[in-house]
Structure formats: structure tokens, C-alpha cells
Batch of 2 targets.
Target 1
Amino acid sequence: MWEQIRSNQIRSAVLVAAIAVLLLLLGYFLGLYFFSSGIGGLVIAFVVWAIMSLIAYYQGDSILLSLSRARKIGPDDYPRLYNVVEEMKIASGLEKMPDVYIIDDPALNAFATGRDPSRASVAITSGLLQKLNRDELQGVIGHEISHVKNRDVLLMAICSVMLGTIVILAWYASRFLIFGGMAGSRRSSSRDSGGAGAAQVVILAVGLILMILAPILAQLIYYAISRKREYLADASSALYTRYPEGLASALEKLGASTQQLKSANQATAPMYIINPLHKEGIKASDLTSTHPPISERVRILRTMAGGASFSDYEKAYRQVHSAGRGILSTAAVSGAGAVSVRPASPAEPGGVESVSEKVTRTREVSDVMLRLNKYRTVDCTCGAKWKIPPGFPDDSILCTRCGRRLKI
Amino acid sequence: MIAVWIIVAIVVIFLAFLAGNYNGLVGLRNQVKNAWAQIDVQLKRRHDLIPNLVETVRGYMTHERGTLEAVTKARNVAQQLSSAGAGERGKAEGELSVALGRLLAVAESYPDLKANQNFLALQEELTSTENKISFSRQFYNDSVLKFNNKTQMFPSNIIAGMFSFKAGEFFEVTVPEQREAPKVSFT
């Protein structure tokens, strides 16, 4: 587990460093262009970034929770939810019980937040809580808890702050360029040497390109990090619950819903278990998505036949993608021993019923009603059950299902 | 002069290696201890819940005296063994799990009982406690495996030998009956 986190940290660190380099380059060239000093631009970029980071670090989770209108619950409000969170806390070896929040929204989603594992929160919409049985809820909570355990929340917060800084800088710079362009050109023409002029042109060009490309590039890197962490969280959830089917069937239910979460936006999207901004009919497999497509995540989880370890997930991922490269790090995959899957929990009273149960119950009720109205029933050997109304003239009927003649 | 520096460098590297491995071993040993405490908490919780459950159920299940007595007996045995080693304790707790599973399965055929709010709350608590026991056992065994690997694998086994780190004991709940499905009769 630790090897997993460490090697993922190295990979993620490279991507985070790439965003940081983009931010610094943007700051430097904008500084060169506007103040003729790269250092000045760097300082401005750094100050904007530092302020945003401090806010995100100390207030990020409470801002996110209040933006999504989540309310905190105790063990007595929703015993099943609270218990499942505690179960997953134990399975993951988290030191402290995370706070549990409910979002009163019929949309189906869940997210985790908190800058370190000892100050974590897990939130779930009331719609999702209603739809899931215990095994599925365990899978979803396991996924969220592993975001906390793998420190994805902090990582994504760092990335989204840098991404935000880049977007803000590029936006203001482009406004300055459009409305203050005259001043800039006059200042450059007041300088006389031709060499400086050529350098100015180069700087202008690089600055312009960066201004346009940096936000896009940063966003793509951000999405890449986010998708990688989603796979890792799915694999961890399967390992914690020892039951990949739970998360798979929960993801199916999540994918089938078309309702958008009202209180989510582009910046908070990677925190959720599925992309809350997904629209019907748009394939999410392209580069500009925070989450891997749900159908693919389900397929990977279902392909993990008989095992729940990281190496089983890795094998399933390769099978689904039919590609040589896996998604998890080699150290993690080779380190752990075999892990077997547990059987499903027994059906619980008052839980989610399957459709067939509902159908049989409805049939039983209608049978009682018919019997009260003096209907008679004839069972055919093919399994069909015929209801004969009172005052039926003939003494036999034809079973339209199998063609036999039945005596009444 | 160079030779001295090389020796100093080797000593520093050795000390760093020693410290790193030693701290790693201590960290894992503490994790194992912590995980064991976690199992302990959940097992105690189960022992506390059972008298409550038996009291609630007794009025409804007049024909299941044997099942109820089996649960109470298994619980008392398990509680007496709560300071025993992992192996012995695992056996007692396993038997309690089987008896409890049978009781909850039998309860399915009592509609009045299933309508009782008190029973439903208890059932949720017990189901969750069972899950917590198996999850904490899972985490404990994973931790023991990691700790044992580190004490036996080269090079950390040298440090483990020097400071006498002993391999941990797995917590297995193994009862022969557990492999069979619980027998339920709907009469």
C-alpha cells in the first residue's frame, strides 16, 4: 500500500511539477512583456498562487462543503451510512473517523475532502443513499475513503489552485494586452536599439502563445492526474471491501442517472465519484474529462475474477484495454499477496428490493384481491396461473402459453 | 585523508540504513498493535450488544430456546477468552459468529420481530459490528503480513534480529461449521 502511494506520488509529482513550470513560465514572460522584468512577473504569479493556496489549504474543505450545501450527520441520524463509513475507515486503517455529510439532492453522487487523513470529510447525496444497498454503499464509501487515504484530495487541491492561477493570470494578461496594447508598443518604440526590439518581438510572441496554451495545457495535465487517481481509488475500494461487484453495480446505477448535481462546478468536479457535470450523449472518454468512462470502470471491476488485490485490478485493466501498459505502478502490483473476494451480504430488511421481488409481491396482492372477488385459479403445468372470473360458462380453458386444455 | 572520508561516509550510510529500517520496523509493529486494539474494540462491542439482542428477541421466539442459549453460551465463552492469544480467541469468536448468524437467520421467519424498531436497530448494529470485525481482522492480517515480511526479508531481517523483533500472529476465525451454509427452516 505504501509503495503504491509513494510511486504514485512520484508520477503525480512529475505532472504537478509540469503545471508549476507552466505557471512560472507564464509569470516570467508576462512580467517581461508588461514590466520588462521577468522577476516581477514571477513575484506576481507567486503571490497570487500563494494566496489562493493558503485559502484552499485552510478553508478549502469548508468552502467545498458549504458550496455543495452539505449538512453534517451523526451516528443516530443515518445509522447505516455512518456504520458503513466506519467500516471503511477500519478497513483502510485510517486513524480518525471522517466527518459524514449528506447533500439533500436527488442527483446521485458522493465526494471526499480534507487536506490530510486526520481532517477528512465524506459527503453523499440523499438520492444516492436511497438507491444503494449495503454492498454498493460500501464500494462507494471505500472509493471516497481511499481518495483520503491516498491523499488525492490534497493533490487535486494543489493542482486546481495552480490551474486557477494560470487561468486568472492569462485572463487578466489578455485583457491588458487588448486595452493597454498601445502603451506597451509606445514604450517599446521609445527604446532605440534594434536588438532590443527583436527581443521584444520574441518575448511578445512567446508570451502570447503561453497565454493561449498554458490554461489549455494545464487543464489537460489536471485531467490526466485526476483520471489516474480515479483508477487507483477504484482499485483501493475493491481491495478494502474485498468485493469489486459492489462498486461495479453502484457505478452502473450512478451512470444510469441523468440528473446533474446542482451544486457542482468545473473546479470541484474531480472530487466526486463520477463527473457531476456529465451530459447525456457525450462520450466522456476523451482527454477533456476528469473521470474515466463509467462503463470502462465497471468492466474493469467485473473482469477482476476471483481476486481483489491491486494485481488483479491491474490484470483486469490490461484485459479491458488490451494494451501492454497498466495503470498502477509495478511496485504495488508485485508487492501484495493473493487476496480473495468475499461473498455478497445477505439481503437486508428495509433495504433496496430487486424488481422481481416487487413483481412477486404485487402478484400476491392481486391474487388476494381476485380471490376476495370469487375468482378461481387454475395452475397449468407450464407454470402459468389462470384466473377464472365467477360465472365463467365453460368447464375447461385453453392455456395460451403451452396449448394444453385445462379443466376447471 | 581520502581513506578517512570514505570510512566516515560508509559509517554514515550504515547508520542511515540502520535508522531507516529500525524506524520502519517500529512503525509496522505499532500498526499491528493498533490494528489488534481495533479488533478488540469491535469484539467487545459485539459482546455488549448480545445480551440486549437476546432480551429483545426472547419474547418473540418462544420456540427457539436452543438457538438463544447457544448464542449466550458462545458469548460467555468468548468473553472469558478475551485475554487469550489470537489463535484460541479466534476459535471462540468464530463459534459466536456462527451462533449469531443462525439466530439472525431464524429471526427472518418472525414477521412481528422484523417489525420491531428496537430489533431492526439492533440488527443494523450487529451486522455492522460483524463487518467491522472482519474489516479490522483484514487490516490486522495485512499489517501482520507486512511486518512479518519486513522481519524476514533481507536486509531488514538483520536489524529485526539485532533488536529481536518477533513475527506477529495472524488472527484467523476458523471453525469447521463455518464452511457450511447456516440451516434455516421456515416452519
Note: The two ends of chain B are 92 Å apart (CA to CA).
Target 2
Amino acid sequence: MSLRSIRQSVLILGFLGVSLTLLFHWMVFFWVSTEATLGISQRIFYIHVAGMWTGMLAFIVVAVCSAMYLWLRDDRLDQIGRAAAEGGLVFFAVGLTAGPLWARLAWGTWWTWEPRLTLSLLAWFIYIGYLLVRGATENPEKGKTFAAVIGVIAAVNIPLIHVSVLWFRSLHPEPVVVRQDGPALPPDMLITMLTALLAWTILLFALVLLRYGAARLEARAEELALDQGTTT
Amino acid sequence: MAHVLEARDLVRRYGPIRAVDGISFGLVEGDLLTVLGPNGAGKSTLLGLLGGSLRPYSGEIWFRGELRDPGVTDWRAEIGVLSHRTFLYGALSARENLSFYGSLYDLPDIAERVDARLAEVGLSEAAGRYVREFSRGMRQRLALARTLLHDPSLIFLDEPFTGLDVHASALLREVLVRLKDGCRTVILVTHNLSEGLALADRVAIQVQGRFAFLGARHEIPDGAEERFYREWVEDL
Amino acid sequence: MSRYLRQVWALAAKDLRVEFRTRERFVAMAAFVVLTSLLFNYAVDWTLLNPRDIASALIWMIIVLGGLLGLGRTFELEKEDGAMEGLLVAPLPRDALFLGKVIANCVLLGLVEVLAVLVVSLFFQVDFTQNWLAIGAVLLVGTIGFVSLGTLFSGITAGTRMGETLLPVLLFPLLVPLVAFGASSTASLLAGFPPAVVYGSLRILAAFSILALVSGVGLFRFIVEE
């Protein structure tokens, strides 16, 4: 993708993403009906789930880009991966903030070992490791390789971790287990949920593209600076 | 004569910095190529690429007429690398170090070979002592024994004279002379002009990742080596 | 094929020989195990808590933390005098290097685990003899996975400025299955349940370890290649 098309896409997707975000926030606070058992506090649920979902989506992007980078060694794959990791970090942070807030209001405790929440916390740390490793090497190429290896191995292990977290929860059930995504979400809740998911997925892509464009510019600037330096 | 080793447009970069910036050359079997150049010219990086411990960003290396595949390990058995780092384990004895490398190279009759090499570099009495007790000169001699243990046909030496005393330097020179038996090809990287030129068949001067000069030894006028070298290095 | 195995063996033997002579890693890990258990004794009000209730958790956390100490220094030997380059230049498949390190680390960690069991049983009067074979099996299977991941990540951290401090950040998230299933099965076994009870956990631990080992074998070459 050329830099111009990146800029255009960022603008379009960004605009769309922000608009949809505003829309679904309006829906969450003013439009959707209140859930019977939990009351008004349940409204955070949309934000929490949307954050988690987007974070997971970013994770998949990181995993795929990492594997492909190890195979093809194209710097652009590495840049996309990094952008996705940073984006995922943001959305997971939202989810990890909204989650405990909701838990406090719904069940009186700040933290529950709810599988989705736990998995996101772990994934969050994997992102941190992924990003830390990049900058910690002498040779930048090595940093990219290390990060890619982490991306792949984390992805490979996530299913197993997921199983463990679920299994552990089944042995130690929470005092009140609410099926948030129950058998049938009433239509207005469903629409709100889907709007939220769509809004943040688009926003994620916008952010990733933005970061990717910035990374490309950085790389170009470095090369130019170096060429300047040697032609004297 | 066909080239035993050929480098085509080798590039090695660290981020945006190109330590090796498009180097090409060919070596005929039995040649000794000396690579001279100031610090930071990328000479060690070049040896790393040729020796197979570094991967090129772009470019090819051909060995005996075939493109070298980093995934395959067979060609490594024919390469010996002596770096300014010794590759030794301090907690093992000299003999244990060599035996270890012997098993890595899967050599037959390791014990005899080890003894022979140790004798060659004058370390037979010290064979059972731990390497961490060795002096710098002894370690370098042991490293040389390690390099030649598996009888490589391609030998890369990176600043081998550094830190050697008179006795050890003489020993190294003797070994180098013996290596020029027509079947072995040697690349010697050094910034020591006199040692480097003494045995060279061909000479390269590497500056900022490129070969500023590549030619036969006799192209460098006797008695004017210093001036010749400085001209090439300062020209850029 | 046998050349490969000979090389792996030579690597593992070299590491173990050096470790046996210098005892650097083992002493550090052993001291950690003993001292942590000692501190732990003072951290708990034993009138409220029965040692057997948390023996399994204690053992596993000690093994993970103590193991971390040793694993972080897996490639320390190769850093001194640039020996890593010597290994890369040799006709040594990169995964053979990985397996050699894993084997050496497993032996080292195995010894530390035996010590941990002895210390915990001594300090807290916990009986490990009943079901000792099953407990040993759980530890063994789990250790393979733990060491595989630890060795792989140690290869990464050895190439960074942050070094060993980065290792827990990378490693711990992936150890959830190990600790969850390892500790729970050990607890069941310590409580006297028959070994058959932990077959399910053992299968998951085996999956974890096989996955870790295979990933390590496949990915190590990327880490160590320059």
C-alpha cells in the first residue's frame, strides 16, 4: 500500500470508527433496554466485551504476521504486527478496566477469575513482552525476530491456556455466575453489541494502519538519513 | 580455474546501517586472501557471513560451484573459523574442549586427532588443565587447534595475531605457512599490514563495508605498502 | 540420525560436566529452595492452616521460581568467549543445540525438584511417599514443558540488554496450564487419592509439554541465527 492510500484509508476508517463508537455509546447509555437482573451497571458489559473482542482480534493479527514474518522476512509484516500489538494493548486495557468496574458493581469484588478477563490479562502481558523485546536488542533485526517468535509461540499456547483457565474456573465457581451472553439476547441488546463490535473493529484497523504508516515513514526517514550521511 | 568460494553482492545490515554493503569476490583453491582495513570497516562481519554464523540480508555465497544453503549443515564441516574470541569453555580442560568440538564435527578417532593438534600448538603438557587458567597466548593457540581440528579446506582467520606474544606469533606464522599447501583456501582479516601481506596471494582493502581495492599481492609495490594502504583508506 | 543424537548428547554432556564442576546454577537454585521454604514457614500461621493444604502449591511455586533462576542462565556459558559463534559455525543443526540444552536443564531441574520435595517434606512434615511414583510422573511430564519454554525464552533474553529480568514476563503467562494442572494433581495425590484420579491432568500436562518441546525445536533456529 502506498503512503497516500494508507492516509486515505486511515481517514475513512477513522471517521467511520469514531462515528460508530459515538453511536454505540449513545445506544449503550440512552437507547438499549436495562437488563432485568443486574440493572443499569450491566451497560458496561458492551464496552467490556467489545474491548476484549478487539484485543483478541489484534492478537490473531499479531500471530499471523509473526508467523509470516519468520517465513518471508518482510519488514512490513513486522510493522503491521507491532501496530496490531499496540492497538491490542489499548483495547485490552479498556476491557480490563471496564471488566473490574462491572464486577465491582455486579458482584461486589474488583477481580473475578472470569476466563475472558483472565485470558485478556495474560494476553496483555504477552503483548508487553512482545513490545519490550523489540527494543531491548542491540541489533534491530534480531528484535523483530524475537518478537515474531513470541507472537507465534503465544498463539500456539493460547488454546491450552484457555482450556486451563476454563477448567480451573469450573472447579472453583464464582458465587454468582451470570450468563451474560445468554441463549437469546433481546434484539436491542444484540444490535447494540454488534454495533460496538463493529465500531471498535473498524477503529482497530484505523489505528493499526495509522501506526503502520508511521512505522513506514520512520523506516524511510532512517534510510534517507543514512544515505545523506554516506554521500559526502 | 574454478572458484572454490564466491561471494556475490553480499549485504549485511543492522537496522539501516550496512556493515557489509555489496561485496563480491571469488577465491581459487589454495589462495590466501588478506583483507585489510580500518576498524569498523565491517571485516569481521564479512567473515561472519562467509563462515556461516551471520545471515546476509541479500546476496549469495557459492561454495564449490553450488549456492550455499544456510539450512543445510554439511558445508560447515569444511570451514574452520578462528575469531578474536576463542569459542572456548573455561571450566573444561584443553583436551575436553577439543573433544567436545570433535564430537560436534562428528570426527572419527577424536582422541588421536586432539592429541596431534595439541602437540602441533605446543599445548601437550597443559592438555589436562582448565582453560580458565590459561594465558591469552595459550588460549589463542588452543583456539587455533580447535579451528584446524576437523581439517577444514576453507579457513577464516579474524585478527589472529591480536594479543599474541612473540613466541605465539611465530607459531601462528608457521601454521599459516603450512596451510598454504595448495589444497586449503584461507582468508585472513587483519589490520597488521606486515603480517597480512607476508603470505598473501591476493589482497583486499575494505572500507565502510565495501572492497575499495581487490587485487593480487604483487600489485602492491614492495617497500611502499604503507603508503598504498593509506591512499586507499583515505581516498574515500 | 545417530550423528544428530551424538551431537545432542555431546552438548548435554558438556553442559552437565561444566555444571558439575562449577555447581554455579545448582547451588543458587538449591539455596533458593531451602531459604524460600524457610521464609515460608514464617509467613504462615500454622494454627490456622494445615501444611498439607498448601504443600502442593508451595512445591510448584518454588520449582517455578527456582527453576527460573537456573533457566535464565542457560546460555551464559556460550556468552563467555563467544562460544555461541563456534556452535553456529559447526555442522550442528540448531534444534540439536536446543535439545541438548533442554536435556541438560531437565537434569538440573530434576535434581532441584527432588531437593524441593525433600525440603518441603522435612520442614512441613508432609508425606510424599504415598503415591510418590505418580507425583514423580507429574513432575517429570511438567518439567519437560517448563524447561522447553524456559530454554527457548532464555535464548531470547540472552540476546537482549534486559537479560534475565525479562524472562518471567515472557514465560509466566504461558505457564498457567503447567501450574494449574500440575499443582492440582499433586494436591490430589498428596491427599491420598488413587493415581487414576490424575490421568486427565497428566494428559493435559503431556499435551502442554509436547507442544512446548515441538515449538521450541521448530522456533529455536530463528532465535539463535544471527
Note: The longest helix of chain C spans residues 94-124.
